[in-house]
Design brief:
Order of helices and strands: HHHHHHHHHHH
Radius of gyration: 24 Å
Shape: globular
Number of helices: 11
Number of strands: 0
Largest sheet: none
Length: 272
């Protein structure tokens, strides 16, 4: 095993400091008594109470979570279908164009995507609001889901699926009972990625959102134009806490599953 050198240790320390010190500063100043975020006025939690009484932020957060939930479900379904056709469809007319249409949004600037969707919604007379945000987020995030699921389908052992077909399953039953449970981790990963992209999006949502629906990133971005308020620090701290708890829970779950699999393998070896 290679030893940790001073260069690696210094690089690792500087990297983590550059990443996490700004977050620590935000967390500290979220408990600041003073309204001035750069002047420490004593410890206080009043800005968390002010945030919970701020209907504009609460409404924006509710819209954001609803948009993220529904758009990620749509993106997961369509992305999984696209990945299945791309991997299992073999060679068909227009396959190269279809593949390019899936991968193109991954490198397309968000400004172009948002402007294109805006012009589309205007041309068909669709009023901008929560529904248009859901459609826009599902449109660009389904490409990420398709890439994640297709990478799992490529390494999928089709002999298991063929065995199910030989035992009398229809193609749909074989997909539902065999293929889908095996690729479920990739599908769940794609759903989580689509949800994260939706919750984080600002550029595309700013094009397709209407006055009746404002997402949390848009609300925060419009608020900091007048200066960073302690309420935004409190909101950022809550989001950091949610992400931290989710990350720790996912890590513990993965470690527990790995240990369970190792224990089952040892028991199988002992039984054999």
């Amino acid at each position: 095993m290679r030893r940790l050198t001073w260069f690696n240790a210094t690089s690792l320390t500087l990297g983590f400091a550059f990443l996490y010190i700004p977050m620590i500063v935000v967390i500290i100043y979220s408990f600041n008594e003073s309204r001035l975020v750069t002047v420490w006025g004593g410890f206080s939690t009043k800005w968390y109470g002010e945030l919970l009484r701020n209907d504009a932020f609460l409404d924006a957060a509710w819209v954001t979570f609803k948009v993220g939930f529904f758009s990620s479900i749509i993106a997961t379904i369509l992305g999984t279908m696209g990945a299945y056709v791309l991997v299992r469809g073999g060679r068909f007319y227009g396959r190269t164009l279809f593949s390019g249409m899936i991968y193109a949004p991954l490198v397309m600037p968000e400004v172009i995507t948002g402007l294109s969707l805006l012009l589309l919604f205007i041309s068909i007379g669709l009023d901008r609001g929560m529904f248009t945000i859901i459609l826009a987020h599902a449109t660009f995030s389904m490409c990420y889901v398709s890439v994640v699921v297709s990478s799992r389908l490529v390494s999928f052992d089709r002999s298991v699926e063929e065995a199910a077909l030989d035992l009398g399953c229809t193609p749909f039953e074989a997909f539902r009972l065999v293929t889908l449970p095996i690729i479920a981790p990739a599908v769940i990963s794609g759903w989580l990625l689509a949800l994260t992209l939706s919750l984080d999006d600002l550029v595309i949502a700013s094009f397709v959102a209407g006055p009746s629906a404002t997402t949390l990133p848009i609300k925060v971005f419009s608020s900091i134009r007048l200066g960073v308020s302690p309420e935004i620090n409190a909101l950022s701290t809550i989001l950091i806490g949610i992400v931290t708890i989710g990350t720790i829970a996912a890590s513990l779950s993965t470690k527990r599953a790995f240990m369970r699999r190792q224990r089952e393998e040892r028991m199988a070896e002992q039984a054999g």
